[in-house]
Amino acid sequence: MADTVAIINQIPVGSTLCDPAKKGKRKEHGQYDYIDTFMTKRELKITNACPSGSYYIQPKFKMAIQMNDLFPIFTLVKTPPLDRPMTPLLETPEAYLYKIE
How confident is the model over 51-56, as a mean pLDDT? Predict the structure, then answer.
């Protein structure tokens, strides 16, 4: 979470942050909403629409869960890039920060 906080602190106050996972129950209580409301207080507009000029945090890896008869198998897989033209702004050990063109 420290990397996410550091990344969000690099985004200008009042900017739009693109989060494609912001749907369903996450629409009101997503991870970035929580971090911005209670930790960074950057007053970001967090949306799944990803308009031009918004910022996008891309984790380097995501957890893939495969089920077998007894136990789930967890593996890390590289996160595919967002299918939009973007400008890289920052890289941390866990994620990238992009500005969507």
Answer: 96
